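User: Fold this one for me? It's Beta-amylase.
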Amino acid sequence: MSLQQRIGALSVTPMTAESGIFSGDTILATMSASPGWRSPTAGLRCAKDNDRVSPSPPLSPRIGVMRPDLSVACQALMKEVREYKEVGGAGTQVKEKGVPVYVMMPLDSVTKGNAVSRRKAVNASMQALKSAGVEGVMMDVWWGLVEREAPGEYNWGGYVELMEMAKKHGLKVQAVMSFHQCGGNVGDSCTIPLPKWAVEEIDKDPDLAYTDQWGRRNYEYISLGCDTLPVLKGRTPIQCYSDFMRSFRDRFEHLLGDTIVEIQVGMGPAGELRYPSYPEQNGTWKFPGIGAFQCYDKVSIHRPLSSPPSNCIFLLPILFYMLSHLKAAAEAAGKPEWGSTGPRDAGHYNNWPEDTNFFRKEGGGWNCPYGEFFLTWYSEMLLSHGERLLSSVKSIFDNTGVKISVKIAGIHWHYGTRSHAPELTAGYYNTRFRDGYLPIAQMLARHGAIFNFTCIEMRDHEQPQDAQCAPEKLVRQVALATVEAQVPLAGENALPRYDELAHKQILKASCLDVDGNEGGEREMCAFTYLRMTPDLFQPEKWRQFVAFVKKMKQGKNGEQVEREVEHLVHVSQPLVKEAAVALVH
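Assistant: Here's what I get for Beta-amylase.
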């Protein structure tokens, strides 16, 4: 979309480039399972998008004259663009400093019927975000919605409309390949399970789910212990994820690299590369508990595949579950007695480190030879899962112009202790004596992926000090790891924050001042803001957000920011009002 078209979209009327005068007299209210699997594409069937998309809402009554507030605002924006071009000079390539801001869309932006949820609200919201200088949006592309009905049957209906909507408003898209369940984590406002055919397979064999030492199953994400086992109607989980992403690539090929600029690969619960060690569902875990290891499924057994490949009818020895891997690793280390189970003295989900023999400061099992063996194995299993998925996604999206990213959880509680227990149970082998984030950064660097990290908005003193929370120190450690591994770092806020203090902390962290050289050249490559909600569009919060976006894009020393902010707030006011009302309803 051209610059004139984008600015004309503020009034949803055409504007000629020559005259700069708006014409037209209307304003649209829309601102408002078979035994033998044939892989990978031969048998795939993609639903017709138009068959699944509900019709657009009716238009509002026509307005006879151009709204003066929008007319003035759009002309002012054109003046601002002309001034920018004069500074850069004709044809001059000016290197932009600053961090582009994306905004996360609601988790339920696509309905279970594969249509856009609250279409009018999303349209108005996108237009408001664009007017504020936002670079783009992040949206979850749910495996549990698109491939819900049957293996290999993909319904992209709602996402087709969302992508086109983003393109229309000139917004870029970070598309999250969400292979996890929505519901049961911090901030989950809706429930979207895994595809029902995948859940059926887990019901038949519960060891496909992550399992704690008390036998509790977690259905948020299929256990990485069976990544390479064809347990999902004849396909492995990695094959399922790969086929899904390949179908996405083929359906949205015309938008890749232009509108769709980033693919974030979901690698665990909440889309993060980690184990589901702190599940909130049913009150299992509460902050700031240490969580629990997730590797107590079963040791090697035999069972028939539910849908084996047509040329493969036999009982398969299962050496792919977590405890089977542990057993093999222990035998290879010459310590077979270490391979029968994970730690049994690591406490419960809501214990603190000093409550347990394994995590306590003095003489804790984490710091003995067995503990070092187990934690190395546990964390390397997670890294291997990341390697497998990144190898797949890299081959699928090679030469498409999109960036690849992976999200890592910001587990900042008990960071000040020696053992860093919550990080260990999540799979990050990070202690006072060992850097657990450098191996992750190095793994991402090998595949050219972005390290996306959360809790960027948090400050140490805002968190419970008795739990030795230290988000700022954690962010600094991660930044140092990405510098050493030479991998780009992007950020997100872990919790919804709309206040100026959080914005200031994000601005500070985005500069990656790892060497005490404030104002240095290194910055985050992007920041994604949680989340597009009615709260964001409340007048004062919106003003603060617009100022935040402006400062992020211009850097900390941007002049005349406040004056420009007031101008942009005035420009976007009609859109913001409409978005706030529509999102509520």
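One thing worth pointing out: The first helix runs from residue 3 to 8.
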